[in-house]
Amino acid sequence: MTTIERLPPVRLWIRESGGAWYGVAECDGRLAASSSGRTREEAERVLTSCIPPGAPRTAGIGPSDFADDAARRLAALEAGGEPDRGFELAPEYYPEPAASVYRLAAAVPPGYAASYGGIARAAGTIAREVGRLMAGNPLYPLVPCHRVVGSDYALVGYRGATSGPDLRDKLERLRSEARGFREEVELPGAGGLRVFPVEWVLAKADLEGDGGGQPELW
Questions:
Q1: Which one from 130, 145, 167, 195 is the annotated catalytic residue?
Q2: Mean of the pLDDT values across residues 28-51?
Q3: Are residues 181 and 129 in the same domain?
Q4: Which of 8, 88, 144, 204 is surrounded by the fewest CB atoms within 10 Å?
Q5: For position 68, which CATH number holds?
Q6: pTM
Q7: Structural domains counted in the chain
Q8: Do residues 188 and 195 make contact, with C-beta atoms less than 8 angstroms apart?
């Protein structure tokens, strides 16, 4: 694990795209963190919170093809686009198994969800570690953490919550992405990770009527 003192510096960029604002933390042409917000200030605040405290950083000033391209791609993802596999993560900020966990979660397409346990098995770690990484997700909207749920399809862990408005927000995000899929599928090139229709998650939440109940991470 790279210590804070040895983390390379990042440059923080803020860009507007598609009517929203996006933050991009760049480390030598690789992504260290990302954020979205309704205002420039919100995107900047969230991006700053995604960088480890004490890690060296500077404000991006002037033109940047990297920031412009990243903002366009992040906007497409937040609008419901298919997973973007073109981002390269800064390895100093994402040692294993974090890098594999975030890449696998980023591969879950709209209309589907994955379980913490499923991602854990594909990444060679444990479900609780996946839950911890999703709760502190520094790569939204590249990593759609709302698409990761319990193995029994229960809502859990969005922004670290186990109940309340954050899980209701997670439910509504999934509801907006429902596409009528009916079967579980295996994602190609994702270590055997299987994803299932969000309708299965919605059905459980509607049946319980409280946003998820007690989850089974595995």
A1: 145
A2: 97
A3: yes
A4: 88
A5: 3.30.160
A6: 0.90
A7: 2
A8: no
